[in-house]
Write a structure and sequence with these properties.
Strand content: 25-35%
Structural class: alpha+beta
InterPro entries: Beta-lactam/transpept (IPR050515), Beta-lactam/transpept-like (IPR012338), MecA_N (IPR007887), PBP_dimer (IPR005311), PBP_dimer_sf (IPR036138), PCN-bd_Tpept (IPR001460)
Keywords: Cell cycle, Cell division, Membrane, Signal
Largest sheet: 6 strands, mixed
Shape: elongated
Family: Belongs to the transpeptidase family.
Protein name: Cell division protein FtsI
Helix content: 25-40%
Subcellular location: Membrane
Number of helices: 19
């Protein structure tokens, strides 16, 4: 019988389906083999082959449900990703037999397409009309009974996160993952106690509650991760943990920074894909892929990860219960692209070492004054779980006096030696403001009020500053403006200063003003430089909307302000930094109240030495001189060794 056009096939197939609906057995396109192929392909796509008749290569009938089951087994990993299934030409008849080519295409994880042509054989040896000769070769010419298509991926070389010198900050590093095999445990409580004791010797705390839950929900033969240690740390506890009943070990390389704490919250980590990762990236990630979590590793994961090589294999289970694999298609990996940052390894290490002894959460940001590049982003303790250094939103306390003083100088409302009264307390619209430790200086030069950090003196001149002066000074130093660093960052929020009491509070860094350590480091660098330049962190790929440079700051304001910030160290609240190595330090301490009715305060210090500006904040650290200044001392001492 001659073939018919595809336009007529649809009508023939429809007629066939109607007949089949009446109970007639599997009408397989009586008008021609092409109709049967169309019905077969349509049924394959819908996982319903009930309207197609099948025979084996030997001529025996085979149920459509069995064919559906075999199709699912044969297509294996590829089953959900069939993107093309269509005739590749007209059916060719030879007596009671026919063939028709078909096109198949599959989308592999990562987006690559595997396309090829196969052939459907048909026969009309009985009164049932044209029937498909079912054989695995329909799926692929090399498939035979018992085979299955599997996808094997080989990860591409991951791109590096580079420092300012273009050298990798994160590199493959030998690690040992310590795990527990539930079936090998003899005493879970004792095992966890012994592991905790061993880990404490290297400063690692075991989350027993989480581990207990995971052990309870794991298969007896599972490898339940406990902790992954760099090889030197593992070697310190090896003899303590190796012989514990239930422990198992896995050695591998992980993408790691120079130290555990090194810019940890900023860089993020590279770990095996979680269930959440797999669910969020269907068709892109597979079990065992390494994925960036947090920080730059997550933000730029797609670029850093590149595209894995994909290999399609025919898997056949042998009588010995092994699996033989034959490769039939592969793609080449596309290496990930590196991310270049402005971080300086020595400065970052000095920052991490400076915050390490502080038990409270802390943050330190260091910026190169000459070009506004960020040299270090450190969060403590132990690298920090949250990148407070860049995204924190806290009151700046008296460090904001640097900003309000710039505004006062711009308005010519104060001078270095002009006297401003510093009483113990002062009231504005019925609200009382006071100094730490009930300090009162009386009528003294404004430079002394600044060096000693007198709140009431700033309250007394707040009316001269005004809301407009505060806003202008803050904006001139980049606070509250829109930054684009290539990573999440908070540039600050300026108080509206819309009432006398709010203006008074905002003048010395309280009220509705909020900043991050980065925001204050950027403002400090602007004062030291005499012009605001948006801080830079990610250089390549370059941020699309970096803020243009600000206007030059008035020298008549900047020079007196620099003098006052130097005197904070020579004769004020930051005098503990007088003898720090590396040259003169200028800066401002800060003590920030953050909750009404609480005596707890955040501790701040902002300043610069040479070409490096910095900001340090310690949550609940007390006075600026009590927690932040010692961190600055350690930072500059280490940096200038």
């Amino acid at each position: 019988m001659p073939t018919i056009p595809h336009a007529r096939r649809a009508l023939a197939v429809l007629t066939c389906l109607v007949v089949a609906g009446t109970g007639t057995a599997a009408c397989s396109g009586s008008d021609g083999p092409g109709d049967t192929v169309d019905a077969f392909l349509q049924g394959w796509r819908k996982s319903d082959l009930s309207k197609v008749g099948f025979v084996t290569a030997a001529g025996a009938k085979i149920a459509a449900t069995d064919v559906t089951t075999q199709l699912k087994a044969l297509t294996g990993d590829l089953a959900p990703n069939l993107t093309k299934l269509e005739p590749a030409g007209k059916a060719t008849e030879s007596g009671k037999n026919a063939t028709e080519p078909i096109n198949l295409a599959w989308t592999l994880p990562g987006g690559a397409t595997w396309a090829y042509q196969s052939t459907v054989r048909l026969t009309k040896q009985s009164s049932d009309g044209w029937q498909v000769v079912w054989e695995p070769a329909i799926v692929h010419t090399k498939l035979t009974e018992g085979d299955s298509l599997k996808v094997r991926a080989k990860a591409a070389d991951r791109g590096d996160i580079l420092d300012a010198a273009g050298k990798p900050l994160v590199t493959p590093t030998p690690v040992v993952t310590i795990g527990i095999s539930p079936e090998k445990m003899t005493d879970q409580a004792k095992l966890l106690k012994d592991l905790n004791a061993a880990f404490k010797t290297i400063g690692v705390t075991l989350d027993e509650k989480d581990l207990t839950t995971r052990l309870k929900n794991s298969d007896p033969t599972a490898f339940v991760d406990v902790v992954t240690l760099r090889r030197p740390d593992y070697d310190k506890v090896r003899t303590k943990v190796r012989t514990l009943p239930g422990t198992v070990f896995r050695e591998e390389n992980r993408e790691l920074a120079p130290t555990r704490a090194f810019a940890r919250a900023l860089l993020g980590t590279v770990d095996a894909a979680t269930r959440e990762d797999l669910d969020a990236n269907p068709g892109t990630l597979t079990q065992g892929d390494m994925v960036g979590h947090g920080g730059l590793q997550e933000r730029y994961d797609t670029q850093l990860r590149g595209t894995a090589a994909q290999t399609v294999v025919i898997a056949l289970k042998t009588p010995a219960d092994d699996v033989d694999e034959t490769q039939i298609f592969s793609t080449d990996p596309v290496a990930g692209k590196s991310i270049k940052t402005t971080l300086d390894v020595n400065t970052q290490k000095a920052a991490d070492a400076a915050v390490a002894p502080e038990k409270n959460a802390s943050a330190l940001v260091a910026i190169k004054i000459s070009d506004s590049t960020i040299l270090a982003v450190s969060n403590g303790p132990d690298g920090g779980a949250v990148n407070t250094a860049l995204t924190g939103q806290v009151p700046p306390g008296s460090t904001f006096k640097m900003v309000s003083t710039l505004g006062l100088l711009d308005k010519k409302a104060v001078t270095l030696d002009g006297k401003v009264d510093c009483p113990a307390t002062v009231k504005v619209s019925g609200r009382e403001f006071k100094n730490s430790h009930e300090m009162k200086l009386g009528q003294v030069p404004f430079r002394t009020d600044f060096a000693k950090s007198c709140n009431t003196a700033f309250v007394n001149v707040s009316g001269k500053l005004g809301a407009d002066g505060l806003q202008a000074a803050g904006t001139a130093l980049g606070l509250g403006t829109k930054w684009d660093l290539g990573v999440d960052a908070f540039s600050g929020k300026l108080s509206p200063a819309d009432t006398p009491t709010e203006l008074a509070a905002a003048t010395f860094g309280q009220g509705a003003t909020a900043v991050s350590p980065l925001a204050m480091a950027g403002a400090t660098a602007a004062v030291a430089r005499g012009q605001f330049k948006q801080p830079k962190l990610v250089l390549d790929p370059a941020p699309a909307a970096a803020l243009p440079d600000g206007a030059k700051l008035a020298d008549t304001s900047i020079q007196p302000l620099k003098t006052m910030m130097r005197e904070v160290v020579t004769k004020g609240t930051g005098d503990a930094l007088q003898k720090v190595p590396g040259g003169p330090v200028s800066g401002k301490t800060g003590t920030a109240e953050f909750a009404d009715g609480s005596e707890e305060t955040h501790s701040w210090f902002i300043g610069w030495q040479g070409d490096i500006a910095f900001a340090v904040m310690v949550q609940k650290g007390g006075l600026g001189s009590e927690a932040a200044v010692p961190i600055v001392n350690r930072f500059l001492t280490t940096l200038n060794k």
